[in-house]
Amino acid sequence: MGHKCYISRVPACLSVRECSGKLYLCAAIILSIIHISSTQEIRKWPTDFKRCSLSDPKLDDCILQAAKEVMPKLVKGSKDLGLVSLDPMSMGNFSLGAAKGPITLRVDLSGAQLAGHSSFNLQSVKYDRETFKMEMRGLHKEIELTGGYATKGKLFRVPINSKGTLLFTLKNMEATHTVKFKPRKEKDLTFMDLDITFRINHVDMFKMDLYNPHSTRIAGAALNKLLNDNWKAILAAFTPSMEGVVQQRFTEAFSPLFQHLPYEEILPPY
Description:
Elements: E1 4-5, E2 14-15, H1 16-20, H2 23-41, H3 59-74, E3 89-100, E4 103-115, E5 121-128, E6 133-155, E7 158-186, E8 189-211, H4 217-229, H5 231-260, H6 263-266
Antiparallel strand pairs: 1-2, 3-4, 4-6, 5-6, 6-7, 7-8
């Protein structure tokens, strides 16, 4: 009894007996499909992008300068490199939770967007060639988070229950971005899986503007005043969940770049 063998994207279906006479043709087609699909996934480092080599004794300085030159070119995304828009960046739906001391507040955001982070003033870079770990420190002058929100909880025993749109603004935020690369060999090339960690070190100001269309102007102004009068305590309570959301989204955004761009293209040995 004949079994059937299927070749992707080839309309004819051949039995084993029929295939036996055309074994080399079947193999050639299959290998061609595998070769085409694999070569299409490998990308090249753009020729107009600064590139550093692993043998550079001042590698950290080179990466610092390269990042400053390359990042503005990637802000709106790059189809060739598989990058979506980085600023503004779609953050989707997520929750910020706070249960610290007198603050028990949960904010559910929908259709959120993050903007302004591309103005990051990168100040230092440290890259460990052995552990594939990169630490970047710098200053975000102003970041804005917008979207729909629904919040419920208590702030200093004051009950809060509100729904509408929000604008969160962080000014002069000092932050550390740590990228942990995990090498993955494919044939003669090295690709990187990555995990980005984000830490907020200092913020000069955290401003919250909530607009509830179902609330009176006086009630809305009172809520915003309550929040902004206590922004330091709220920021401290929100920081862990904020960091978690940012590092998850940035890992997702930058992963395609390293999935299809070989390590040897980004940091050649010489």
